[in-house]
From TrEMBL:
GO terms for molecular function: ATP binding. The lineage of its organism: Bacteria, Pseudomonadati, Pseudomonadota, Gammaproteobacteria, Oceanospirillales. PROSITE patterns: ABC_TRANSPORTER_2 (PS50893). It comes from Alloalcanivorax profundimaris. PANTHER family: IMPORT ATP-BINDING PROTEIN. This is ABC transporter ATP-binding protein. The keyword ATP-binding applies.
Length: 220
C-alpha cells in the first residue's frame, strides 16, 4: 500500500476561533482520487484548504472563486499556472510578447478546453463556463502531481464536465475534489468522502456506492 500523502489525526480545522472540524481523522494516499461531497457549509472548502497547507509544493489548486485576472487574456491566465517553471525575465516578456513555443503550448491546451478562439480575449469578456475552463487550464498548466479542486467543473454542462474532470484526473496522480454532482463523483473517482456539519460521515470506495447512498449527506 502506498504512503499517506495527507494525514489528519484528531485535527481541529476551522477559521480563527470558529471550529468546523472538531477532531478529524483522515488520510489520503498517493495515487488516490477522492471526491468530497456534502451539503453547502459542511466543510469541503475548509478541508481542501487544510490539505493544501500540508503539501503546498505538490499541489495544484483550483479554487471555487477561480481567482483569474479579469483584464488579462485566457492565454495569460493559463500561463500563470506555470510561472514557477520559468525565469522572471521570461515571465515579464511573456506579459508583453509571448514566445512562439509558449503560444503553441498554451494554445494547444486552450484548444483542448474549447477555448481556441478566445486565446487572446480578456477573461472579463468570457461566459461563466469559459472562465471556469480557463481556471482548469491554469491548473493543468501548473503540472504538479496533486490536484485539489473546489467544484472545478460546476459551471459546465454534464458532458463537458465529465470529459474535463476525466482529463484533469489523468493529468494528476492524486486528486481531492469537492463537488455537488454526485453522479460525477461516482463516475470519475475511486473514493468518496461525505461531510456533514464538519464531520466525516462517509468514507467508501465509489464502486460500492449508489446515488441513493448519498442522500443522507443532504438531509437538513
Ligand atoms: N473565512 C471564514 N471565516 C469563518 N467561518 C468560515 C469561513 N469560511 C467558511 N466558514 C464557515 O465554515 C463552515 C464550512 O464552510 P466551507 O466553506 O468549508 O463549506 P463547503 O462545504 O465548502 O460549502 P459550499 O458547498 O457552500 O462551498 C461554514 O459554516 C462556514 O460558514
Amino acid at each position: 500500500m502506498s504512503e499517506a500523502l495527507f494525514r489528519f489525526h484528531g485535527a481541529r480545522l476551522g477559521h480563527g476561533d470558529a471550529t468546523v472540524f472538531a477532531a478529524l481523522d483522515l488520510s489520503v494516499r498517493r495515487g488516490e482520487t477522492v471526491a468530497l461531497l456534502g451539503a453547502s457549509g459542511s466543510g469541503k472548502s475548509t478541508l481542501l484548504a487544510a490539505l493544501r497547507e500540508q503539501r503546498q509544493a505538490l499541489c495544484t489548486w483550483c479554487p471555487q472563486e477561480q481567482a483569474l485576472v479579469p483584464m488579462l487574456s485566457v492565454f495569460h491566465n493559463i500561463y500563470m499556472g506555470g510561472l514557477h517553471r520559468h525565469g522572471t525575465w521570461h515571465n515579464l516578456r511573456t506579459l508583453l510578447r509571448p514566445a512562439a513555443a509558449d503560444r503553441a503550448e498554451v494554445g494547444a491546451l486552450a484548444a483542448e478546453l474549447g477555448l481556441a478562439d478566445k486565446l487572446f480575449t480578456s477573461v472579463d469578456r468570457l461566459s461563466g463556463g469559459q472562465a471556469q475552463r480557463t481556471a482548469l487550464g491554469r491548473a493543468l498548466y501548473t503540472r504538479r502531481p496533486v490536484l485539489l479542486g473546489d467544484e472545478p467543473v460546476s459551471n459546465l454542462d454534464e458532458h463537458q464536465g465529465l470529459a474535463l474532470m476525466q482529463r484533469a484526473l489523468t493529468a494528476h496522480d492524486t486528486a481531492v475534489v469537492a463537488m455537488h454532482d454526485r453522479a460525477l463523483a461516482l463516475a470519475c473517482f475511486q473514493r468518496v468522502l461525505g461531510l456533514r456539519h464538519g464531520e466525516l460521515v462517509l468514507d467508501a470506495p465509489a464502486a460500492a456506492l449508489a446515488l441513493a447512498d448519498l442522500d443522507e449527506l443532504y438531509r437538513p
